[in-house]
Q: What sequence folds into this?
């Protein structure tokens, strides 16, 4: 039993702990002292690696542990003296019951505070046509779920307080009640059916992407994600974008535009995404290397950019940047595109500014943008065309 | 001499000298390569807890980065070296931390640590079985898990760091070593580790299912099983059916990475000019395969926690669980539905929008059984006689988190709302509450509740209270504000919020969240201290410390191989006869025959037993006529 006794001896262990703590804190102290004492400031900078701060927090933690230990002992002693005097010891069931009640009240206040303070920091109302519908559904769902949240949490914690242990009482033997169980199976089912129907049709409407008859065609804009930026391509006067092929990508043709396609001649490049207000826009979303995600929170637009899978999202912005600035009273406000699918080290910094402007401003801006077909590419293409007229593996490349 | 689980050579050796265990016991086969389910449960628990602490430290590291994006911590450079040049986390390493935190928590802690511990402990003990169907396979399952854990952690030692494409490892990011540093050797180790892990889970799962179906003691029909076993049973089925699909996905990814196939790759240009030869693959295919496991996985995580909480809440409110059958059917409903909802993770990935609509319907249907469970827990507490043990508090915490996190699932399951919420902090808040915190709380409830069974000693209740309140409040402080960040369109997995003007308003909130996280992290030390000291110096546990009905409390406190010294007890009743009117005590163990408790029998006890019901009515009638005679 010798070894067992050894580990069992609390005194030896605590002694060991004290020694180790003293030792480490002395080491820390020495470290900082020597850093302070020894000469050059460069050495100072190297030595001061935050150990002192860490030591401070460790000390703080130990003090807290110590205090908790003392409080524990005091409670124990109090408990024992009560027992010796023949009085009731601390009734932890009551204490915990009251804690539950306090938590309920404090939690209710905390949740209220959250909803009013952080709740006011959320996105402003949608700046797009379909976004308004999403917002409506969001608020409906919020109201419904909040009712359930409040009721169930109140029931949970008041039951805990109300039915805390009492030696004189017995629980109520209630194994089941089919009626009430049916009620609370069917009630959520009905609520969820309503939400499903509401959501299903909204979703269908948002993703229903064919331009309706009689409706003016949407403006096609290509957005291509790569590590770690977005590239934009606007159609020129022909209102159509030229074909692309990833095998044509090169240093000067970064989107792989197929300049044999006549629609590509007037395709424009842009640094900022300008959108005319109240015009349907069709974002054609591509990715070159890994999955990215076009996320425009203010417009309630998000769709992943997947390499090899061209997709598009059609939406209609309704509030111009200028209007939004006055509305929010933020003169520097800008709409943004973020990347919302992990794509590598600089994922957190992959943005594009979006400006929603009036039709006139949009046209003026568009006329200033430069085409992708630069002189350099023209020269290059002519040269290539002379050198090898027909590429032999054209067929394979086109698929 | 108590049986100590800690793998301490000195103690073990000492025990062997006395030869109190069966004669061939050596240190190696008692503590390391043990085939005893109780020891394997403890091995799973301690490995799982170790992994949980590691994952927690990782999370605190990246929380510090989020709270102080502009500040340098020279100590970090001392500790992490090349991963934190100049005392700031490298942005790639930040993503690695996030990835490994997620992987460890979801798979190594909440799947293996939770199911592994409690399935191994409870299935034989609560069903009256001497050991698992295949003890050897059970041991292999642990050792595969252990090796998987070691490989996963070893990825911190490779030059370019661990896998860092998120725990969902979507290709092409994870498939192309050039796409980010973590997609090199770190990713390879991740994949090897996961294949071993899945092998471990399959061996474990097959074992659990076969044990439950074939080896129950006399009288223990399926409808007399405790809810904890029901939950573990359905969890095991889920795992057995869905994990192989992840293996398929992972193996194809290995092929893409190493053998030049293009299952997931198509039309890729790296660094603006390097055209890759891949054609015809689909990154979406991987997402389908991943989430076909990935979604059942979240129920693999939460269902054992639900089962444990049901059990703990029933015992400690001294009341039968309300609607036992409804609880089982809702578990079955969740199990079945969880296979057809995976698409809700992919609403905005470019999947066909029609499919999105279908998955939205199935997803919102799964909220119904979840709601039933919640209401039944509340009804269980109603008019109970609630004993606040630490286990009970954690079970209650589990319910509270499940409600808070579950309700936000209704937003995310709605495809239209998901457009703007997908991959934002709203999602982070949602799943950390509903499957993270809730499952961890279920696990902790289980540890506190069955600690006496595992180690023969009691844990310190008051430290448990402290641990509970600090963790409970801390978790809410951490995750509640995140909902609002998500509603402001702040994306997850962002290294810093400094690059976007609109996100800067959340910097102070981030600092607050980090300190709340550190507080809850420190609170876990109270648990660790309690756990370790109680193993050695805790109060000796009585045989049935919680006055519970289930079979595990009929075994002796001292562990022995085979669980029961004599014959295995026979089961006569369901496990929830608490506070039965007319009974002597407020609990009647499952081993007590109905014939011994005539005064407390109810027609409810004979629902599937017409002969018994006849006997009961006959007895009740004679009682009545006797009284009339009197």
A:
């Amino acid at each position: 039993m010798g070894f067992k006794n050894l580990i069992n001896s609390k005194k030896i262990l605590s002694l060991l702990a004290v020694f180790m703590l003293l030792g480490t804190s002395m080491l820390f102290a020495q470290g900082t002292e020597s850093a302070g004492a020894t000469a050059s400031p460069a050495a100072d900078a190297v030595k001061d690696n935050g150990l002192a701060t860490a030591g401070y927090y460790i000390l703080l933690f130990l003090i807290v542990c110590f205090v908790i230990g003392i409080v524990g002992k005091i409670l124990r002693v109090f408990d024992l003296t009560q027992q010796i005097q023949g009085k009731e010891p601390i009734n932890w069931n009551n204490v915990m019951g009251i804690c539950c009640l306090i938590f309920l009240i404090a939690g209710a206040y905390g949740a209220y505070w959250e909803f009013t303070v952080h709740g006011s920091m959320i996105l402003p109302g949608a700046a797009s046509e379909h976004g308004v519908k999403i917002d409506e559904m969001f608020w409906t769902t919020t109201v419904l779920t909040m009712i359930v949240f409040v009721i169930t949490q109140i029931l949970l914690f008041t039951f805990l307080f109300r039915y805390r242990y009492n030696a004189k009482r017995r629980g109520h033997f209630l194994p089941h009640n089919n009626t009430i169980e049916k009620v609370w199976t069917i009630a959520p089912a009905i609520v969820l059916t309503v939400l499903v129907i509401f959501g299903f049709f909204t979703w269908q409407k948002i993703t229903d992407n064919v331009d309706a008859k009689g409706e003016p065609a949407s403006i096609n804009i290509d957005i291509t994600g790569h590590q770690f930026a977005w590239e934009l391509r606007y159609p020129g006067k022909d209102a159509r974008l030229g074909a692309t092929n990833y095998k044509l990508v090169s240093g000067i043709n970064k989107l792989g535009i197929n300049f044999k396609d006549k629609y590509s001649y007037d395709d424009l490049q842009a640094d900022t995404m300008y959108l005319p207000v109240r015009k349907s826009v069709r974002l054609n979303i591509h990715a070159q290397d890994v999955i990215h995600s076009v996320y425009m929170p203010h417009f309630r637009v998000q769709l992943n950019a997947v390499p090899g899978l061209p997709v598009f999202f059609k939406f209609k912005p309704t509030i111009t940047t200028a209007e939004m600035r006055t509305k929010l009273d933020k003169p520097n406000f800008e709409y943004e595109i973020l990347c919302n699918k992990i794509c590598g080290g600089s994922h957190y910094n992959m943005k594009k500014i979006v400006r929603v402007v009036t039709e006139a401003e949009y046209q003026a801006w568009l006329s200033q943008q430069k085409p992708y077909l630069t002189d350099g590419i023209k020269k290059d293409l002519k040269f290539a065309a002379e050198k090898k007229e027909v590429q032999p593996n054209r067929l394979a490349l086109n698929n | 001499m108590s049986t100590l689980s800690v793998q301490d050579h000195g103690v073990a050796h000492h025990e062997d000298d006395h030869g109190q265990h069966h004669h061939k016991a050596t240190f190696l086969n008692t503590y390391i390569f043990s085939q005893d389910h109780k020891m394997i449960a403890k091995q799973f628990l301690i490995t799982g807890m170790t992994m949980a602490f590691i994952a927690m430290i990782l999370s605190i590291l990246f929380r510090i980065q989020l709270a102080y994006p502009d500040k340098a911590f020279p100590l970090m450079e001392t500790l992490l070296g090349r991963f934190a040049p100049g005392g700031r986390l490298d942005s790639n390493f930040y993503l690695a931390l996030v990835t490994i935190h997620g992987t460890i928590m979801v798979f190594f802690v909440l799947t293996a640590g939770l199911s592994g511990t409690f399935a191994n402990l409870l299935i034989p003990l609560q069903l009256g079985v001497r050991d698992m169907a295949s003890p050897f396979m059970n041991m292999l399952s642990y050792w595969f898990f252990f090796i998987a854990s070691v490989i996963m952690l070893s990825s911190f030692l490779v030059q370019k760091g661990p896998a860092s494409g998120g725990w969902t490892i979507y290709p092409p990011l994870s498939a192309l070593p050039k796409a980010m540093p973590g997609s090199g050797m770190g990713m390879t180790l991740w994949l090897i580790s996961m294949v071993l892990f899945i092998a471990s889970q399959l061996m474990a799962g097959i074992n659990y299912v076969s044990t439950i179906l074939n080896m129950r003691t006399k009288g223990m029909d399926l409808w007399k099983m405790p809810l904890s076993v029901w939950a573990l049973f359905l969890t095991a089925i889920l795992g057995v059916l869905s994990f192989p699909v992840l293996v398929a996905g992972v193996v194809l990814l290995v092929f893409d990475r190493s053998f030049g196939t293009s299952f997931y790759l198509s039309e890729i240009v790296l660094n603006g000019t390097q055209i890759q030869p891949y054609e015809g693959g689909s990154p979406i295919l991987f997402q389908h395969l991943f989430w076909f496991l990935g979604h059942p996985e979240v129920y693999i995580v939460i269902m054992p926690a639900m089962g444990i909480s049901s059990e703990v809440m029933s015992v400690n409110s001294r009341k039968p669980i309300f609607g036992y059958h409804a609880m089982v059917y809702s578990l079955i409903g969740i199990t079945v539905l969880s296979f057809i909802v995976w698409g809700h993770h992919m609403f905005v990935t470019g999947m066909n929008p029609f499919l999105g609509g279908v998955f939205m319907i199935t997803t919102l249907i799964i909220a119904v059984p979840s709601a039933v469970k919640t209401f039944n827990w509340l009804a269980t507490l109603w008019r109970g006689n609630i004993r606040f043990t630490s286990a009970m508090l954690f079970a209650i915490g589990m319910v509270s988190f499940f409600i808070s996190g579950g309700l936000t699932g209704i937003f995310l399951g709605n495809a239209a709302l998901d457009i703007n919420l997908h991959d934002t902090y709203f999602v982070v808040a949602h799943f950390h509450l509903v499957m993270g915190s809730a499952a961890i709380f279920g696990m902790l409830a289980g540890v506190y509740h069955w600690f006496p069974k595992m180690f023969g000693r009691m844990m310190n209740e008051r430290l448990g209270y402290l641990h509970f309140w600090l963790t409970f409040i801390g978790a809410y402080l951490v995750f509640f504000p995140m909902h609002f960040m998500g509603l402001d369109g702040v994306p997850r997995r962002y290294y810093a919020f400094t690059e976007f003007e609109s996100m800067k308003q959340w910097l102070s909130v981030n600092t607050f969240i980090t300190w709340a996280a550190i507080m809850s992290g420190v609170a876990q030390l109270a648990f660790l201290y309690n756990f370790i000291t109680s193993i050695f110096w805790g109060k000796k546990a009585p045989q049935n410390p919680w006055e519970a009905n289930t079979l595990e409390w009929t075994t002796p406190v001292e562990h022995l191989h085979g669980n029961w010294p004599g014959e295995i007890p026979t089961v006569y009743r369901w496990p929830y006869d608490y506070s039965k009117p007319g009974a002597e005590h407020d609990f009647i163990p499952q081993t007590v025959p109905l014939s011994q408790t005539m005064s407390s029998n109810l027609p409810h006890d004979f629902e599937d037993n017409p002969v018994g019901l006849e006997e009961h009515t006959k007895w009740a009638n004679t009682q009545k006529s006797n009284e009339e005679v009197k």
Summary: The beta strands of chain A are 219-226, 229-234, 268-270, 273-276, 281-287, 292-296, 301-305, 311-315, 335-339, 352-357. Residues 28-47, 394-399 of chain A have pLDDT under 50 and may be disordered.
